[in-house]
Amino acid sequence: MVGFVSYKASLMPDLDRILVVLLTEYGPLCERCLAHHARMTLSQVAAALATLCQTVAVRVEHGECPGCEQFTQVFSLAKTHEDADGSRAE
Ligand SMILES: [Zn+2]
Known about the structure:
- By secondary structure, the chain is an alpha+beta fold.
- It is 51% helix and 18% strand.
- It has a single domain (3-84), classed as Winged helix-like DNA-binding domain superfamily/Winged helix DNA-binding domain (Arc Repressor Mutant, subunit A), CATH 1.10.10.
- It has a 3-stranded antiparallel sheet with strand order 1-3-2.
- The longest helix has 14 residues, at 42-55.
- It starts with a helix and ends in a 6-residue tail after the last helix.
């Protein structure tokens, strides 16, 4: 377990913590795959991701999900919020 993640995770509700662990170990993943792995509903995952974005840096991209091979929105953990914003010009 990475120190950054475990420190942040200790402050989180359970659902968020599960998503952090999944994204750390299996990310990037789409909402459907996260829901499948976490045994949560899609709406639970969406709600947890929304709060997670405010706690840790979550990168959202469009791409092929390695889990289900669908071209969709995939989520992964970024090291910083700057990193999560992607390649900014300046
Ligand atoms: Zn997927």
